[in-house]
Each structure stands twice: as structure tokens, then as C-alpha cells.
Amino acid sequence: MKRSTTVYLYELAWILPSIAIPAGMLAALAVTMFGAGIHLPSSEGRVDPTRVAQTAPFDAPGIRRTAPGRYEVAMTSQIWSFAPNEVRVPAGSSVTFVATSKDVVHGLLIPKANVNVMLLPGQIARVTARFDRPGEYPFFCHEYCGVAHHTMWGKVIVEANP
Ligand code: CUA
Asked: If I label 59, which of 32, 85, 102, 149 is the partner at 20 to 30 A Cα–Cα?
């Protein structure tokens, strides 16, 4: 009798964590997703890939201020450049990139700002990053898009506040 009780407790010691650990992970996932709003970059809409240059906001690529300390960059990618390929903001700004591709699959990677999205023809990508420290934040195309893929880059210049 004593022996079978020991076996039962031993099994319980494995079964309970095997329930508690996935439950804890699901809870952590729910908190980061719904509480902190952390999720994968997702599609923010569609655009006719043959009419990107005629479709707002991509008909006028560039940066505009949407609120104090907040900016939005309408960005197009095309072989082998970004438009705009230089973005200037004051330190402490929050910048939302709204971007798409005019031709093939590109990517937008800003390693120092934790930005990493695919730019797919026909899809609009939207990602927001904060730029607190003055300096240069290079951005790159990180999807192979042809012979001059490696020349496809630009930079965010974060200027010190006076
Ligand atoms: Cu665009 Cu690689």
C-alpha cells in the first residue's frame, strides 16, 4: 500500500508541472498580446501593386508629423531603393512606417530600432518604432531582390534636441 502511494505522488509531481507550464505560457502569451499589444507585424491593408505610385499615401512618399513627437513615414520600396531613403526626426520621436513594394518582395530591417517587416507587392505593412537616442539608424532590405539587393538601404537620422 505504501509503495503504490509513493508511485502516485511521483506521477503527480510530473503531471502537475506538465499542466502548469503550458498554462503559464498561454497566460504569458495572452498578457503580452492583449495587455502589452505585442504581436507579429501583420497586413494593414492592400494596395493595387500596379498602381502604388498613384495610391495615397504612396503617391507622395515621405515623412509627416501626425502629433507632437509622432511621425508617419509613407515609404515605397522598389528595385533597388527605398523612398524616402533618408528620414530625419528629433530624438524621442515615435515613427510609424507605412510601407509597401512597387515590384518584388523586399524587406525593411532597422536593426537598432527592432523593426523587421516584409514588404510584399499588394500588401501594406505598418510598424512603429521609438527613436530616443540621437544618431544614425541604417535600414536595409533584407530579402534578396536581385543583383543590386545589397545596395538597397537608407537611414533614419535622429537629431539631438536643442
Ligand atoms: Cu530589396 Cu533586397
From this structure: 149
**Which residue range(s) make up the domain with 133?**
52-159
Asked whether residue 47 is assigned to any structural domain, the reply reads: no
Distance (Å, whole) CA 135 – CA 90? 10
Counting the structural domains of the chain, the total is 2
Q: Is residue 46 in some structural domain?
A: no
Atom of ligand 1 nearest to the CA of 80: 1
Instruction: Indicate if ligand 1 lies below 6 Å from the C-beta of 149.
Output: yes
* C-alpha dist (Å) from residue 93 to 5, 66, 68, 132: 63, 11, 8, 7
Per-residue pLDDT reduced to its tens digit, 24-47: 999 999 999 888 877 776 667 888
Identity of the amino acid at 91: A
pTM exceeds 0.85 for this model: no
